[in-house]
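Good morning C.,

I know you're traveling, so I'll keep this short. The sequence:
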Amino acid sequence: MSREAYVEEIRQGGVTLSPELAAAFATVPREAFVPDGFQRRDGTWAKPTDPDFLDLVYRDDVLVTKLDHRTPVSSSSQPSLMALMIQALAVRPGHRVLEIGAGTGYNAALLASLGAEVTSVDVQPDVAAKARDALRRAEIASVRVEHGDGYRVPAGPFDRVIVTVGVAGLAPGWRDAEIVVAPVEHAGTHPVLAVTDDIGAVVSPAGFMTAAGPLTAARPFPAPAAPGTLAEFTEHAGPRFDPPLEPLAYRDLWYAAGVWNRRATLAAVPRREQNCLILLDGTRTGGAIILPDGSVPAGGAEAARYAAEATAIVDRWLDAGRPPMGAWRVRFAPGGDPEAPIYVPSAWKLSR
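The tokens, ready to paste straight into the viewer:
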């Protein structure tokens, strides 16, 4: 795939690229940041010597570059999601940007191409070293990569903070920046928030690898339900949407469910192509699922109760006019570990 086609594919991912950001994607060599290859979608490993390597690199897709056994622990994010986050950051030449989660270094290279001076921090020493080497190969000079915990901010000040790992809240040291863009945990996913003056607005739905340490100390929602752990579920309420909700509208409903119910999370449901929204009961084996067509299967000892709560969420979302996730505004309050507090979402309000 040509660089021009790559940029066009990013645009087709729902991003209106500024000319400067389009030029950055067209000129920064993504292959320089994956010299050891990455995992293909089929689980095999793509190597630089493979004939399809560059075609895979220049697609709007995540490139998983490190696994712990079978669990991805480092990657180059999906370019269209990178673009949405960078656009929300509103970077201007000369801005000092703190990046939490160096990954391959590619995101920092894009920011540097926009004129930013970037300090990138990664908790994994080998990941930080490889990102540093990749930036050197790509001849990107205005990025400094440090090994460290993103909770503890390096010497600033910083104009912007961008976070490329999933967090439960914001570190106190980030709040001095004018804009913080971060994927903040919500109902088993990590929707990206752009936070200005301690008020967050949703930029995009997303799922990220989770940070370590104090940044994930506050978890108001249950962890996602693992495959094969749910009891037998039967339908308690029939379909409401014909045709079923498109993926983005389903994510809108999902976000609202997380605002209104703290048992909302993600479930891998058998025979479903996508993960689903569930209200998970205390045993983590039952509860109620809300499917994209609005039907509600439920199971477990409290199936009737959870099915009623799930149905009420769909009703409430419809009564509110099907608000998109971007319509919510989020306020933050101190939470997490008292010895290392973070600022977590505490109140939501619809902006329209």
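Safe travels,
E.
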